[in-house]
Amino acid sequence: MVLDSLDNFEKYVSLNPLFADVLEFIRNNDLAKKEPGKEILKGDDLFVNFSLAKGKTKEEAKLETHNCMIDIQIPISCAETMGYIPRKDLPEAEYDAKKDISFYDATPSQYITVEPGSFAIFFPQDGHAPCISEEKSIQKIIFKVKA
């Protein structure tokens, strides 16, 4: 897991060849003005979801992992808290290959708060519980990057 300012995103492009495309998209688009929906950037290997997500309590937020994709999550409208736990510490769970997701009935080992202007990267080894906020809705962006 990585948590940092968007101003520093270029320092992470060496982690995955597609991160350079993410950086270019961030630099060339006004992320706050994007309407909810999905934009395909490089087929199934790189796409971005512009979302208006429901704010959840820590108890409502479900831990999830992905086998094939990396999440780069960027809150736009407000700070968003996200639960975190290493995948190795999670129990076995059913995997939905079509949606590339597993959900867990478990509790995060820690929480991070991601402010607007910052991002969090969750790799396949990272369990995460997004969308924790007292706000009713969270405008956010999630890049899905082939791991």
Quote the distance from N terminus to C terminus: 13 Å
CATH topology: Jelly Rolls
Number of strands: 12
CATH architecture: Sandwich
Based on CA atoms alone, the radius of gyration comes out at 14 Å
Q: Give helix % range.
A: under 10%
Q: How many structural domains are formed by the residues?
A: 1
- Indicate the low-confidence ranges by residue numbers: none
Kindly report the average pLDDT value.
Answer: 98
Broad CATH class: Mainly Beta
Q: What this model shows, in words?
A:
This protein has 147 residues and is mainly beta. It has one domain (2-146): Jelly Rolls (Sandwich). Helix content is 7%, strand content 47%. The chain has one helix at 19-28; strands spanning 2-5, 37-42, 46-54, 63-65, 69-75, 80-86, 95-96, 101-104, 110-114, 118-122, 126-132, 137-146. A hairpin with a 4-residue loop joins strand 7 and strand 8 (101-104). The mean pLDDT is 98.
